[in-house]
Design brief:
By secondary structure, this protein is α/β, with parallel strands linked by helices. The protein is built from 15 helices and 20 strands. The protein has 3 domains: 139 residues, Alpha-D-Glucose-1,6-Bisphosphate, Chain A, domain 3; 204 residues, Alpha-D-Glucose-1,6-Bisphosphate, subunit A, domain 3 (Alpha-D-Glucose-1,6-Bisphosphate, Chain A, domain 3, 3-Layer(aba) Sandwich); 87 residues, TATA-Binding Protein (2-Layer Sandwich), CATH 3.30.310.50. Strand 7, helix 7 and strand 8 form a beta-alpha-beta unit. It binds magnesium ion.
């Protein structure tokens, strides 16, 4: 197997151990060599190691002759919007570890269209990196460095042009925003204020120590947002991950509204012919949207985006809280999703809780099992054999997905850890538990034969 640098979400790792200045310089050189001489945008989230890694990456880019346009701390979708709209840029380098804990950082490569670099291009960058194929530059060819602080303003104006600002303003919503001290702190509170909302910010100062909560917007981290939304009598609450490409919500009754619930809510409004979701998305979508093709792709927003583009589908999203509205952008965009959600509450004229209560909800169960790291291949082969003998419709888009008339389960190997994840869903809880148990039995058998 060729050595890999990029995972499903760019280059990720723990700062000081995997993510070092040396690595960032070499990645900068490799990306610059691949993208070619010309201006390349540089952006980062709020992580404490961001300035160190971003400057190192910039040095690498300049060393191979690229001009760097530094956007500073901005949400990933704002950097992508900048590349897509300003024009003339070869791409962007975003220093972020998205939803990962504070000790992590990473580097995400963005192409000239503002989209996350596709795998075949990443492979070309990896080849340059591992073979040290960096172009020579003379003193007069070294790249330049300048700053542009307009990315956020451009981005916010673009979002405001996509929603009915006057109608939303007239409602005077009260919204609690929890950007989790991440890059979304620089956009969403201002965006919602521009929409006439009374904004109550929680963890609203950009701070890479993430003092308020961990960056992943999951219920365990959003207790304060839930309480504050309820106590303030707010219409809703919204939260982002560290780089602001994810959005989850809290309803007016103080209930956490994660990706599993927002997915059918957004899909119902935006789906016409086809939507794209990952293999672990709820079957509520199939039941709720007769006549709409629900395409299931690999887990990861980059795969959802690529499939959306290929199919010309209407909407894409993931249970993790990434939302893609392809008429605006093929990138997951948390602040845009927050504005669209507020617009939805306005246009329907009903509280968010009521809209959610009118959507079906099936029990989805998730669990993970560890195995010994070097048994990965053996576990995979054992699972292949086990699923071949299963009396179900098995698909292999990502891991193994077994579908039954009344439910399904998915078994996936984690890309970064020696872990197997099982997700099961059915219309009835008893059946969902049964399917989870079926998946668990297969995994246990596979892990023990692999030993
Ligand atoms: Mg993210």
């Amino acid at each position: 197997m060729t050595a890999r640098l990029f995972g499903t979400n760019g280059i990720r790792g723990i700062v000081g151990r995997d993510m070092t200045a040396d690595l960032a310089v070499r990645v900068g050189k490799s990306l610059g060599a691949f993208l070619g001489r010309g201006p390349i945008a540089l952006a980062r989230d709020t992580r404490l190691s961001g300035p160190m890694l971003a400057r190192a990456a910039a040095s690498g880019l300049m060393a191979v002759g690229c001009d760097v346009v530094d956007l500073g701390v901005v949400p990933t979708p704002a950097a992508q919007h900048y590349v897509a709209k300003v024009g003339g840029l070869k791409g962007a380098v975003v220093v972020t570890a998205s939803h990962n804990p504070r000790e992590y950082n990473g580097i995400k490569a963005i192409d000239a269209l503002g989209l996350e670099m596709r795998r075949s291009d990443e492979e070309a960058v990896e080849a340059i990196y591992f073979e040290n194929r960096f172009p020579e530059t003379s003193w007069s060819e070294v790249g330049s460095f300048r700053s542009d602080d307009t990315a956020i303003l451009r981005y916010l104006n673009a979002i405001l042009s996509r929603v009915d600002v006057e109608a939303i303003r007239a409602r005077g919503f009260r919204v609690v925003v929890d950007p989790g001290n991440g890059a979304g702190a620089l956009t969403t509170p201002y965006l919602l204020r521009a929409l006439g909302c009374t904004v109550l910010s929680l963890n609203g100062q950009p701070d890479g120590a993430f003092p308020g909560r961990a960056p992943e917007p999951v219920p365990e981290h959003l207790g304060d947002l839930v309480r504050m939304t309820k106590d303030a009598g707010a219409d809703l609450g919204v939260a982002h991950d560290g780089d602001g490409d994810r959005m989850v919500a809290v309803d007016d009754r103080g209930r956490y509204v994660g990706g599993d619930r927002l997915l059918p809510l957004f899909a119902k409004v935006h789906a016409r012919k086809a939507i794209v979701v990952p293999v672990d998305a709820s079957m509520v979508l199939d039941d709720l949207l007769p006549g709409v093709a629900v395409h299931r792709t690999r887990v990861g927003d980059v795969f959802v985006g690529q499939e959306l583009k290929r199919l010309g589908a209407d909407f894409g999203g993931e249970p993790s809280g990434t939302w893609i509205f392809p008429r605006e952008t093929l990138c997951p965009d948390g602040p845009l999703a927050a504005a669209i959600l507020v617009g939805l509450v306005q246009s329907r004229g009903r509280p968010l809780s009521e809209m959610l209560d009118n959507l079906p909800e099936y029990p989805i169960l998730r669990e993970a099992h560890r195995f010994v790291a070097d048994q990965r291949l053996a576990v995979k082969e054992a699972l292949d054999r086990a699923f071949a003998g299963l009396d179900a419709e098995v698909t292999r888009v990502d891991g193994w997905r077994a579908a039954f008339p009344d439910g399904w389960f998915v078994v996936r190997l984690s890309g970064t850890e020696p872990k197997v994840r099982i997700t099961a869903e059915a219309r009835e809880r008893v059946r969902a538990e049964e399917l989870l148990e079926k998946g668990r039995a297969l995994v246990h058998a596979a892990v023990s034969t692999a030993k």
